[in-house]
Amino acid sequence: MSWLLGYSKTTYTSHSSPTPLETKSGSKTTLPEIAKSSIPPCRLNPFLFNGHLQTMYTAVKDPGPPIYYKRQIFDSNHSVYPGTFAVDFVVSKEEGEASASRMKEDKDDTELPERTTNFTAKEWQGISSDDDKPMLIALHGLTGGSHEVYLRETLYPLLASSTQPWAACVVNGRGCALSKITTPQLFNSRATWDLRQVVTTLHDLFPNRPLYAIGFSLGANILTNYCGEQGASCTLKAAVSCSNPWNLEVCNTTLQSTYLGLHIYSRTMGKNLMGLFKRHRDQILQNPGIDETALLASKYLHEFDRHVQCPTWGYPTEGAYYRDSQSVDAVLAIRIPFLGINAEDDPISNKAGLPYQEVLQNPNTLLVTTDWGGHLGSFQLGGGRWFATAAASFLQKMHAEVDFEATKGVDGGKDVNMGGLEGKKYPIFDPNHRRLILPDA
Prior knowledge:
Helix content: 25-40%
Low-confidence stretches: 411-420
Radius of gyration: 21 Å
Number of helices: 16
Largest sheet: 10 strands, mixed
């Protein structure tokens, strides 16, 4: 009955010997120690006393904190998946409002989310900086964008910090957040290539800025895959995953097994995806493998994936797509401090798919779970989401205390077999092995 007082149990799962991290004061700490000292106790709204209520409450309109963005359209440099995608950079209120006035004067009627304007060519050419402020890269959930309240609630305390204000940008999935697509492909849950290009670009534009990343739901799955694929070459200082549906096949099977899962959650996500299809119909139907009649008869998430994602990306079934793009195995290959935050009663990112055993094998990772909170919910009495506060507090602590340069070369604890043949003996497990074969870029 602890929920009557809003108490939610928080559990920390980690390797028995976490990788030591050097602090700026010269002492040593670990990822679990930083998390436990920065993440507040989980106290939620007792009127939203289970995962379904917490999840459904995300549909209630909430203005959230005001954040202003300027959008830059990137031309993809991937040889197989060309096209464009939108990245929204946080700017000040004054700059955002001035840009909105300029667009109005220029009669620029580009359709954009609220408080979002476009960079001019001149502005983008002058965006680079030698400052060393920390910068956060965010990836939103399915069909979302930079406008999402849960994302803005996470960014805001970092942007408004009185001790160290952060910079931030949001990598929008292709076709999301009112962006246009110029090829038949939307996003998918394995699409790490746009994030990879953004990270490289940010290092070029801001060579002194330490980069961090956070992903939400589908964006968390993409971020986890990216960190695993990069392995020891990952240049992010740390990353956070929120409400990640780590094991996509398990999560989708579970969704289809219950009335609420199928007819509420899967149907809602399917409806949102159909909205993207209708918006980008002409581009998507350039793929001759898509049967529009079958697609228009679809109601659920897995049906959309079957009729759009499979023929778009080359998967024979939606199950093959889920197995190939899920991030649960990628956890084993991560070589940077990596925090996962999930609620065990999340009806979408099901507890059965959480990577408890994988995290126990990797000293660079930590999984923080609450027994209550739903999917991207964790609403507190009086407003705000607990996971947003937890993620922001953790990132602030990491940046303030860890000396990442000094940490390089520190013994990482028990090695994890992350694949590759050099110096290894058979049998070899490669957590990044994919069935869909692509060139590097």
